[in-house]
Amino acid sequence: MQILKSSFIALLAAGLIISVHCNRAHADTVRQPVRAGSFYPADPAELARMIDRLTEKAQKTSVRLPRNKALRALIMPHAGYIYSGWTAAHAAMVLRKNRFSKVILMGPDHHLGIRNGAISDVAAYQTPLGRIDLHPDTRRLRRQAALFRSLPVSMDREHSLEVILPFLQTYLGEFELVPIVVGHANVGRLTEAIRDLFDDQTLLVVSSDLSHFLGYSEALAMDRDTVTAIMELNPSMLAGKPNRACGLWPLLVLMELAKRNQWQPVLLHYSNSGDTAGGRSRVVGYATIAFFGDQPMDNTLDSQARFTPEQGQALVRLARHTISEKLGRNLSDADFAAQDPALQDEDFKRHCGTFVTLKIKGQLRGCIGNLTSAETVWEGVKRNAINAAFHDPRFSPLTAKEFDQAELEVSILTEPRPLEYHDAEDLIQKLRVKVDGVIIRKGHASATFLPQVWEQLPHPDQFLSHLCLKAGLPSDAWKDRELEVLTYQVQYFEEK
Questions:
Q1: Is this prediction's pTM over 0.85?
Q2: CA–CA separation, 366 and 386 (whole Å)
Q3: Which of 126, 224, 368, 436 lies deepest, with the highest CB count within 10 Å?
Q4: pLDDT tens-digit profile of 286-318?
Q5: Phi, psi of 431, deg, nearest 5
Q6: What are 235-273's pLDDT values in tens digits?
Q7: Could you please report the per-residue DSSP string of 61-124?
């Protein structure tokens, strides 16, 4: 037992312990659209034109948006575009290209009768507008088997997620997806799981229609009450009441998150099918509602400074090539760069701190980086790839056999900034779990944990205690006001 404990602490001292579950059997499976050609056009050009027309129509609506607030979440409808597309297109009021790198999309289960959540067992979703890769967070959720079952692609006929995606592709550009189909749920546990995935580059989208198949006037009255409940963040007005919204369970999760984080809802648009393409004897209601919270802190990666998923994968390829060349394999550095146009991007000449991490079967095999921006991203990734593979003092140099099993990760850092705090309790309150990387310094002792370490040490006191041990300080040294603390944020890319 003592040996196991010592090994665990030694791995923690590495600064990065991330359990990785890779479903290799389905790594290349893509979830194909099942409603293209019925709910929306299957032809990419026709689909793009239709969304453009709906967006132009939506732009005629005037809505007052809160100032100095950041978009955190959206509710959007998922019916056929001729019915709900006008309301869904009002999302264009609050979305912009490259603002979010990750979208958590929750929609209701219309077919299977699942409990809690389900995630399609695929690597990507396909729409007529292109492929959307799943974010690595989907693997983390799948490990919580009691909350998130794996949904075989052969059984995935759910349209509530699919119908939203072309709008997001149009308005956001490139992003990675965490797709969750939600049935009768433990709202508290599901809320905790979703909350743990949030950072300043995450958008939560809930797919839901409102009342179904009521007369026009009756639908207006019921939908007005439903929208009021959402705007007032009052779940008791919805829970247990029939025909309020097909997406009741994901809506309850969103409302709980909004209450906890003091998000402010804003109704962007309401309509029903009687306003668009249907008769008025049996209508379905639709609403698009945006939720706004505090602006990201100044030291987060803003939308202009962030790298796209494609750029991130180019950096991972650069790290792998650099190690491969050191082992005497592959192309020369110049030939490799010439054959990979993505690596010619001028963004890679920016100066940022970088880390390169190697794992074998989910276990750390090397992690070296620099916290400061003395080097360009290109230079830092190359140097740190070599150091992580061959010069990490905790490990012997990487062998060619190990390299074939290794998984690489590249992290890009913001510039560290001092964190002002009054006492130990204030320090704990100010640290942002799963957002902040932390540096501690006292005299000649110093150490850092990347934000990814929060996965294994989710409680700030535990996180800080292990960080102090890594620096060679007593585990409770973080309670000393003389400890210097700096924070930074990370954008990281796992090898696909």
A1: no
A2: 10
A3: 436
A4: 999 999 997 553 334 444 457 888 888 999 999
A5: -75, 135
A6: 999 988 899 999 999 999 999 999 988 999 999 999 999
A7: ---PPPTTEEEEEEEE--S-HHHHHHHHGGGGGT--TTS-SEEEEEEE-SSS--BSEEEESSSE
